[in-house]
Each structure stands twice: as structure tokens, then as C-alpha cells.
């Protein structure tokens, strides 16, 4: 009887457990309140949209921004929980999959990865951005 | 059938569990799958239920729906919206509830519906009162200034000009790409006051809904709970056009209706299902057509 009652209400326990975990994790790690099943959507400016990775290629000292569409999916995955480990993982994936396609006729190319976060200051209606992580890697054929 | 009265009488004969199962099927068809590997199987399941209506109360059927939905939430947790989680729980609830004898269906649907409704609202309030930028109105000011879905409401409710909203949109879109570390958005004192009001209203109504369903849901004053939910849906979803979430909340509220005594609320919720579809309209574009461009 008691076992049946537990089974009957299983999804309810799962919902509370996931929502509570999401809330606790988001206090300790940079998990976006908007995602992860904790019902924090529309509660803060700190949505995934307020977080962005930029990638630049460097040729003879000249920096060129890589179009966002090239690594959009990597960014969308990363920005929900932008930890240093996941940033390194994003770079590894980019170097393995995207970088070889961006070499053109070069044998070596340096890529710089920047992770930025945006905030809104309502006192003076200003958007403010800060650089959180930055790292460079060189791809050689 | 030739009068509204007859339609209503025919509607009154529909079993509430049937109705909840039917609306769950619609939810499955329109708002459950966002990737081809879930959208296609869930559409096929819907077609099957259309041919064999008994499937809408089959545990195996809902377990299959749950499995596809679960797959999407687990593998795409980083992009899954919160209502996708709720839809997945709901499908599992239906799979479990329909293993039970018929007499237990409605009481279990009521328990599950109430827990989801109360739970998601209380967690939403928890996030809003603990966030540093919500209660002050900062979040809504930012949203009114930069989120295109809210532009029409910003124009109607405040004195900000369309040109300034358009400028804000460009400033926001390009912000990460510009060398400047700060940029000033165009705002107005009226817009700030409206944003602060929206924040207070949201917290209060998101608190009232769960409390009213918890403490008044079964009594004669349950109209307060239903009225609060209808107000929330009508006030929130024309701008934040997450219709899947609106449909879920309506469905959960429908489970709280007494099968006979609350028939008018059930009818109103059915109507609300239809009305929320109008929230998909792009008010800004329609407004621009009739009121002139930005």
C-alpha cells in the first residue's frame, strides 16, 4: 500500500527534487536561473542571453572575429553553466571541429576565446559587460 | 444542435478526466517536441490517439510520450525550457495514474495537478524574491527596453518612443561585439515605475495562486484561486508568449475543478485554451500596421 502510494506520487517527488537541486546548484555554480528545471525564468537579467563567448582568429597580429554562427551551438551549451572546466571543454571542441575548417591556406593559426557576461544597472540604465575567461590556442596542421 | 445552450449542455456531459486527457494530447501535439526526434514520434502518437481514442487513457501510451519527452529534456537540458520539464513530469503522472482503477483517476489527477501548479509557482516566487534584480523592477525595466516581445506593451503602457526602443534593440544586439564595456539605454521615469509595478504584481499574483489553490481550492471560495490564475494567464502570456506554459497552468487548474459544481470554470478554461492562441500574434507588428511604424 505504502509502496503504491510512493509510485503514485513519484513524478511529484522528482519535480521537487530537481527544482530544489537547480536552486541550490545555481547558488554555488554559475548555472543560469532560467534553465535546469527550477522555474527561475523571467526572474533575473542573468539569462543565457546575457552570456556570450567570442572567438577571434589572429593572423600577423591582426584580430578577426569568427562569425557567431560557426560556434553558436557550442556557446548555447556552454552559457547555461559557464565554468572554467566547461570553457576548456568548449575550446577543445572548437579546436577539434571548427578550427580545421577555418585554416584556409595557413599551416598555423592562433585562436583567442573570450567569455563575457553582461549586467544591467537600472540606476543609470547602463548595460555593463565584463570579461570572465580568456584563453588562446594555436592550431597547426 | 442549434443553440449555444445545447452546445453547453453537450459540453457538460463530457467527463472531466476525458477532457484533461484530451487537452494533454493537444499539449503533446503542439508544445512537447522541439527536435525532430521527439516532434515526429509525439505527432505519430497523437495521430494514433486520434484513430484510437481509448489510447488517451492508456498507461503505455503516456509512458511512450514520457520517454520521448524525457529524452529531449535529458539530452538538451541546457536549452529545455522549464515547461518542458513540467510536461515530462505530467506525462509520467498520466502514465502512472492510468495504471490505477478508474475511480482513482480524478483524485490522483487533482493531487498531481495541484502539486505541479503550487510547486512551479512557489519555486518561481522563490527565484524572484532571492534574485538581486527582480523586486526592484530592474529585470522588467531591462526586458521592456530590450525584449522585442515586450516593445508593444512598453509603448502602450509607458511614454517611451518607438525610435528609442528600436535604438535599444540595436545597442543590446551589438553590445557584445562593440569595444565599449558600457552602453546607456534609453529609458524614462514612467517606464521605471511601470517596471516596478510589474515586478510587485508578478510576485503577489504568483504567491496568491499557490496559496489560494492550497487553502481555498476545494471550498466555496475556490473562485479566488481560479480568478487569480485566469488573471495571471491573461496578464502574462500576451507578452511572454510561452503558450505551452500557459496551457499547462490551465490544465493543472482544470484538474482542480469539481466535475459538476465548477463546470463554468471548466468551460472558461476551455475558452482560455482558445484565447491563448491569440497571444501568438505579433502585437508589435499588428500595432505598427494600424498605429504607424516605430
Task: Write structural notes for this entry.
The complex is a heterodimer of chains A (141) and B (294). The radius of gyration of chain A is 20 Å and the shape is elongated. Chain A has a 4-stranded antiparallel beta sheet, with helices on one face. In chain A, helix 3 (68-78) packs antiparallel against helix 4. Chain A contains 4 helices and 4 strands, in the order H-H-E-E-H-H-E-E. In chain A, a hairpin with a 2-residue loop joins strand 1 and strand 2. The termini of chain A are far apart. Helix content of chain A is 37%, strand content 30%. The mean pLDDT of chain A is 93. With 141 residues, chain A is of the alpha+beta class. With 294 residues, chain B is mainly alpha-helical. Helices cover 72% and strands 1% of the residues of chain B. Chain B contains 14 helices and 1 strand, in the order H-H-H-H-H-H-H-H-H-E-H-H-H-H-H. Chain B has helices at residues 4-12, 16-31, 36-51, 59-75, 82-97, 102-130, 138-146, 151-157, 162-174, 189-215, 223-236, 243-255, 263-278, 283-291, and one strand at 182-184. In chain B, helix 5 (82-97) runs antiparallel to helix 6 and helix 12 (243-255) runs antiparallel to helix 13. Chain B starts with a helix and ends with a helix. The relative contact order of chain B is 0.11. At the A-B interface, helix 2, strand 3 and strand 4 of A face helix 5, helix 6, helix 7 and strand 1 of B.
- How many β-strand stretches of chain B? 1
| CA distance, first residue to last residue of chain B | 48 Å
Helix share bin of chain B = over 70%
| Count of separate DSSP helical elements of chain A | 4
- What percentage of amino acids of chain B are in beta strands? under 5%
Short description:
The complex is a heterodimer of chains A (141) and B (294). Chain A is an alpha+beta fold. Helices cover 37% and strands 30% of the residues of chain A.
